[in-house]
Amino acid sequence: MHMKTILILLVLALATTFALVCVLLTRGRAPSPCQHRPPGQEDTDAGQSLVFADLTPEELLQVVRYLRGHLGVPLVDASRAKPSDNCIASVAVQVPAKAEVLRFLDAGGARPPREALAVLHFGNQPDPNVTEYVVGPLPTPAYHRDVTVQKYGGKVPYHRRPALAVEYEQLGGFLKSQVFPAAPSFMRQVMEYDGTNLAALTAAPRGSQSGDRLTWFVLFQNVSGFFVHPVGLEVLVDHSSLDISRWVVSRVFYNGQYYRDMVQLESAYVQGRVSVEKVRKAPRDGDFSSMKPRAPPGAPFPLQYEPQGPRYSVRSNHVVFQAWRFAFGMSVNTGLRLFDVRHKGERIAYEISVQEALSVYGSNCPGGMSTRYMDGSFGIGRYASPLVRGVDCPYSATYLDVHYLAHAEVSRTRRSALCVFEQNLGSPLRRHYSNLQSLYYGGLVNSALVLRSIATVGNYDYVWDFIFYQNGALEGRVQATGYTSSSFLHGDGLRYGNRVWEHTLGTIHTHSVNYKVDLDVGGMKNSLVAQDMAFEMTRAPWSLEQQIERPQLTKKVLDTEDQAAFRLQEKMPRYIYFAANSKNKWGHQRGYRIQITSFAGDHVPEASSMERAVSWARSGCSDGDGGFSETPPALPAGEAAHGGEHGWGGTGQTLSWAGFCNNHSFCGSSLAQDLVAWITAGFLHIPHSEDIPNTVTVGNSVGFLLRPYNYYDLDPSIYSHDGVFFTSEQDFTACEINPIACLPKAASCLPNLPPFTYDGFKNI
Q1: Do residues 643 and 593 share a domain?
Q2: Which region ranges are annotated with the description Disordered (predicted)?
Q3: pLDDT band at 760 (very low <50, low <70, confident <90, very high)
Q4: pLDDT grade, residue 6 (50/70/90)?
């Protein structure tokens, strides 16, 4: 063969070999890491949202130092305080009055002074009471003023204070050292008590009349998921005395029978007059109540990631996402809240906040039948859980810490207690496929921003979400999970729930959640409008013999507070919206519609003395400031009002608009046309066997939507960069025509997943 030909063949062979090697190496090479780009929208807040910001650890420290040095009374750290001591129960930000804030934000006025609200328990005084002080200005306090009478119309009696963590410790010590030893044979032989194997769960409220401080404690096996391991023993403790040595047992319940005290129970047991129902001892992991998976790990579940990094920004307490901008915070009592919510530069709402979560239980055991938990009294924000990356929120979400001071003089930091993430909801926000006349496809992925916290208050876990959609809609939603509360199954227990294990009755209960929604639609001056439909009977104009039933629009301006209030279970107009004084291009008042998702159970009968303490949930309207489950019901009017962030509540008297709103499921205040909606959503829960080991979120979700209603001239999401449109005549595989076609290239990168960490078991 000719040498030249041989050389050419060798060169071709080498080139082919090199090309194959390159292909193989390229095919086997891992994708490069995703490159983050800054969000398309700029955060121009310039620190204005800090007017709503929660207090920093340093600010909390300065307030405590100031109070210690300027009140002129001895203060004991709340983590060690006896009922007869003075202590600082909590310190939180005092959000300035709305008028002050708006002058600052909108009119170039001075920044309002930064202040704190301090709640103090004064037990070491001739007239023990609860007092609230506003302290400021921060960061260097120089004044304090007592706002108790201004907020509540008088002094707050000391018996209305919520139980601090230290009081629960003292009550636990009382049970262990004084109560259980009074029935040694019963406790040893029936309960198999060894000093550690029983757990007590508090009922609430603490009594049946004003001045009471009596609490039922329900006993469970001290194992994982103890809430569903009742042992049949319940103890009513009178801890109204400020002297712990004078606390006494008022009643004892065991397996359907009541006893005067533990001594009487012991005597009856020794004499063989107690019907004993021994409960099989559960292992430490709880057995059936254990949440440990019953199956080995499988293939990883689907993950979402951001090929070019987050498309939102979080700076301090301010979030920017596409056309949305808002400030956020966490009340130690009531939980997650939003301020100055804007879409496309216009304020939609001044404040949207959780106010209260109520659960009313039924049972044939005393602890269960008397329980009406108002979780604000325990602290929805205080019990915000550290979030688990990849389960509680998407793995790549932004996680934020929360600082609070409650039940101690030292502030605490709850790591990763908030998360922010954009979520592809897996369905189109809108779409149309046209196969008539013109041929085209148009659509928009439903990608929304979520702000989330999860509060674990005792047995229940509440997933609190605020969700921001690209069409200008905003959703407030809560999902319930965690363990169901239970009673010991005996007698006619099945009238009050389902049997879920051998001795466990899953007790029927309701959930009611109250929100404050202060909308400012096109400004502060709004009206409340209701629209619905009615069928109109008419003759067809083209054929008078033909009758047509056609739906027509009905409309009514709800211009009095009574008209704007709707009772629970009452038929409500299907369209209710806040209307601005301005109009859109088509001559309609610009508005935002309120759409409620709720399947609430019945409310406590209004004839009940207990009902006055929770009257907002008839309902669910409240004055928007929470309350405390420790509150005994049936207070004389004016003794304490339901108001203020630490509302000492019970009467349900509304401070802001004369109380009209207490009896209703939806209502709006129209004073000075600055409308506020108080929304209650809820559901009835009848626990069943699938609630073991614990309750799932599916089907246990309620809340509300705020939707633009003639607010814009057309759907604002049409301006989203995520839109997709192509016709039959276009090359829909070209990136410049269809951005989805670019995904195989644009999204072929490795997400930057941080290592898994969790701080939830530190400093509990």
Answers
A1: yes
A2: 625-646
A3: confident
A4: low
Q: Which of 54, 212, 375, 518 is catalytic?
A: 375
Give me the number of domains the chain comprises.
3
Residue 36: what pLDDT?
83
Q: Domain check: are 427 and 473 in the same one?
A: yes
Question: How many angstroms separate the CA atoms of 206 and 237, rounded?
Answer: 9
In 291-344, beta strands by DSSP E: 312-315, 318-321, 324-331, 335-343
Residue that wins the pLDDT comparison between 567 and 125: 125
> What CATH number is associated with residue 104?
3.10.450.40
DSSP 702-749: EEEEEEEESSSSS-GGGG-TTEEEEETTS-TTSTTT-GGGGHHHHT-S
Q: Both 353 and 232 in a single domain?
A: no
Contact 667, 616 (CB under 8 A): no
Q: How far apart are CA 118 and CA 435, in angstroms?
A: 65
Among residues 289, 324, 356, which one ends one of the domains? 289
Token pair for residue 610?
């207990």
Which one-letter amino acid corresponds to residue 381?
G
Q: Which of 383, 460, 462, 496 is catalytic?
A: 460
How far the first Cα of the chain sits from its last, in Å, is: 86
Where a domain ends, among 138, 157, 176? Answer: 157
* Whether residue 436 is found in the same domain as residue 564: yes
* Active-site annotation holds for 305: no
- Indicate if 460 belongs to the active site: yes
In eight-state DSSP terms, residue 100 is: H
Range 328-335 average pLDDT: 97
Residue 367's SS3 state is helix
Distance from C-alpha of 458 to C-alpha of 486, rounded to nearest angstrom: 13
In a domain, 742, yes or no: no
DSSP state of 171: H
What is the chain's mean pLDDT, rounded?
88
Q: Are residues 191 and 144 in the same domain?
A: no
65 in the same domain as 186:
no
The verdict on 52 and 122 lying in the same domain is yes
Q: Which residues pair with 131 in a beta bridge?
A: 120
CATH of residue 588's domain is 2.70.98.20
Inside any domain, residue 29? no
Rounded mean pLDDT, 577-593: 96
> What percent of the chain has pLDDT above 90?
78
**3-class secondary structure, 763:** coil
11 pLDDT tier (thresholds 50, 70, 90): low
Q: Is the pLDDT score of 414 beyond 60?
A: yes
652/369: higher pLDDT:
369
Domain membership of residue 264 (yes or no) is yes
**Cβ neighbour number for residue 584 with a 10 Å cutoff:** 18
Q: How far is CA 554 from CA 529, 530, 549, 561, 575, in A?
A: 11, 8, 15, 20, 10
Spatial distance between the Cα atoms of 487 and 312, rounded to a whole number of angstroms: 46
The reported pLDDT for the residue numbered 18 is: 55
At residue 629, the pLDDT reads: 31
pLDDT by residue (tens digit) across 623-641?
333 332 344 332 222 222 2
> Mean pLDDT across the stretch 249-253?
98
Residue 53 to residue 578: CA distance in whole angstroms: 27
Which of 344, 343, 322 lies closest to 721 in space, CA to CA?
322
* Rounded Cα–Cα distance for residues 89 and 78 (Å): 6
The verdict on 702 and 626 lying in the same domain is yes
d(CA 453, CA 478): 10
Q: Is 59 a domain residue?
A: yes
How long is the chain?
764
Q: Between residues 236 and 17, which one has the greater pLDDT?
A: 236
Is 90 exceeded by the pLDDT of residue 762? no
* Domain encompassing residue 268: 165-289
